[in-house]
Amino acid sequence: MIRVFEESDMDALVAIWYEGSLQAHHFIDADYWESQIMDMREKYIPMSETHVLTTHSKVIGFISMVDNYLAALFIDTECQNKGAGKQLLDFEKERKSTIQLKVYKENLSAIRFYKKNSFVIKEELTDEQTEQREYLMEWNGSSYIS
């Protein structure tokens, strides 16, 4: 079930984000992700429109949007590759006409996931905080055929 984020979900979301970040971004020092925990809790999640995916009343993933920008899409590492990410992404595609996101160039599995879900690479950039190369990707609903 997808529902609106509740404050009581915060610990689960931060844990899912942290473990997912360590796994997906092995090319960035773990200390960086540790240093971002409080910002996720106090700044990034509260400033976004966040929906959670639950199963048997346990949060297994979440998606955070800031307008048409996909700020976060994370699935519990034990629940990945079972359609949860696509389910959350499709939920937002129903609500938005375009979606943009940034993904690290070295995060090949995420790039494959987004390409498979009709996102295209628009630009190559450098993340100022990590100095890692990243792609700006976009999905345009007007050209999307399901």
UniProtKB/TrEMBL annotation:
Q: Could you say which enzyme class this protein belongs to?
A: transferase
The enzyme's E.C. designation = 2.3.1.-
**Which segments constitute the N-acetyltransferase domain?**
1-142
Query: Listed GO molecular functions?
Result: acyltransferase activity
Q: Which InterPro entries match?
A: Acyl_CoA_acyltransferase, GNAT_dom
One Pfam entry name: Acetyltransf_7
Q: Which Gene3D superfamilies match?
A: 3.40.630.30
Tell me which UniProt keywords the record has, alphabetically.
Acyltransferase, Transferase
- List the protein's name: N-acetyltransferase
Report the source organism: Sporosarcina gallistercoris
What is the phylogenetic placement of the source species in the record? Bacteria, Bacillati, Bacillota, Bacilli, Bacillales
